[in-house]
Amino acid sequence: MPALALIALATAAPSTAAHADALQTRIVATARATPTARHAFRRTLAFERTGAPRTTYVEQFDPSRSPAERWSLMSIDGRAPTPKEIEKSRKTNHGPIPSYAKLADWFGGPATRSETGGGVLYRFARLPAGTFKIGSHDASADTQVEAMVNTSGAVPFVEHVRMTSNKSFSVMLVASLRSITVDQRYRLLGDGIAVPSDATSALTGAMMGKAGTMRTTTSYTEFRAIP
User: DSSP class of residue 48?
Assistant: First the structure.
């Protein structure tokens, strides 16, 4: 468990049941109003798994370009990508645009609330169906979430989200996952828009009967507003 969560647990007042309290409602409204393609940014992804070397990719996202060209592969392990690697990246499904707006999908759900010295901590026993999927498997109902809301400024925002699932399941008959942990942090830009800051995910399980762990570290930098 990260230091932020440990501090929150140590200093929190007794939790009380909450169903979309006023702060949750305000957070959800802000998230829904957050544009998903207002900024260009750079994303750095580092992949590590048992028995394989660490690989780092740097990508550039620019919403002013055509959909097929919004993601550009800048480097792999510090070197320029080859034309073949660039072409492969263009054909890759990069997934949804990372955005604070995604919080609106689940943050208004039933939760317990704890007041802390630096904000408000919410705990969710599960996520709405379809919110957290690994491949075709929907892990939402088996995922617990802690979300820390920073209330120190004029506009409160979710600063840290930690998702944890310890329910085993199989993936495509050749792999099994035993546990999943995802940590996501957000920050405010100068224009008051909340954006992803960094994220880590760790998956523990087995592939073809061999146990191992896969870890991904992601950082988002160089945000630039697109007119």
Answer: E
